[in-house]
Amino acid sequence: MRFSHDTELTLRAACVLVNSNRVDGERLGDLAALDAYLDGFGWTGRRDRDAAELESVHRLRDRLAEIWAVAADEEQVVAKVNALLSDTRAAPWLTRHPEMPEWHLHLASVDDPLWQRMGAEMAMALADLIRAGELRRLKTCAAADCDAVLIDFSRNRSGKFCDTGNCANRQHVAAYRERRAHAKQ
């Protein structure tokens, strides 16, 4: 399943946001880290650059984590996504930027608070996933020692491991060592 560029980018941004406190402690603990995250995903519009803004993004992160936590229950996900769309007062409009000349949707005014813009766009990207019947692409890492989330964009939805902690490589090495140990017995 192919999604639009802005939908994929926003889903990746949501995944990174959720994981920002799941692997190696808090990685979004100050305004510099928030700015780096926002710049990395090309977020535009108003930035207050204060503690209240950072806290509101942390609250959004918690709400998104709740969506991943119930990903197996479509009705619960829909209720949470609808609540987020409502709370952010999402109002779609088409736009484009010099660095991204293709038309894409923004779902809040550039003057709205950061969490509201982010939440509206992330909720709409999740809505696209739901409408496409692809909710099963929201996953939690299969590594026993990792609780990071992932969005599986593989063709056959076979992704199991996050890309935050080298989990796939660690699991493959462990399986290899176990096979070798059994072969020597």
Helix content: 40-55%
Number of domains: 1
User: What average pLDDT do the residues reach?
Assistant: 90
The CATH C-level class name: Mainly Alpha
Placed side by side, the strands forming the largest sheet appear as 1-2
Quaternary class: single chain
Low-pLDDT runs of 5+ residues are none
Order of helices and strands: HHHHEEHEEH
What is the global morphology?
A: globular
Beta-strand content estimate: 5-15%
Q: What is the fold named in CATH at topology level?
A: Jann2411-like fold
Known CATH architecture:
Orthogonal Bundle
Instruction: Provide the CATH superfamily.
Output: Jann2411-like domain
Profile the largest sheet: 2 strands, antiparallel
Pfam families: ABATE (PF07336), zf-CGNR (PF11706)
Description:
- It is a single chain.
- The chain has 185 residues and is mostly helical.
- The protein has a single domain (5-184), classed as Jann2411-like domain (Jann2411-like fold, Orthogonal Bundle).
- It is 51% helix and 10% strand.
- The protein has 6 helices and 4 strands.
- The chain has helices at residues 5-19, 31-40, 51-69, 74-87, 114-131, 167-184; strands at residues 93-97, 100-106, 138-140, 149-151.
- Strands 1-2 form a two-stranded antiparallel sheet.
- α1 (5-19) crosses α5 (114-131).
- The protein is globular, with a radius of gyration of 18 Å.
- The mean pLDDT is 90.
- InterPro entries: ABATE, ABATE_dom_sf, Znf_CGNR.
- Pfam families: ABATE, zf-CGNR.
Question: What descriptive keywords fit this protein?
Answer:
51% helix; two-stranded antiparallel sheet; mainly alpha; ABATE_dom_sf; Jann2411-like fold; 185 residues; 10% strand
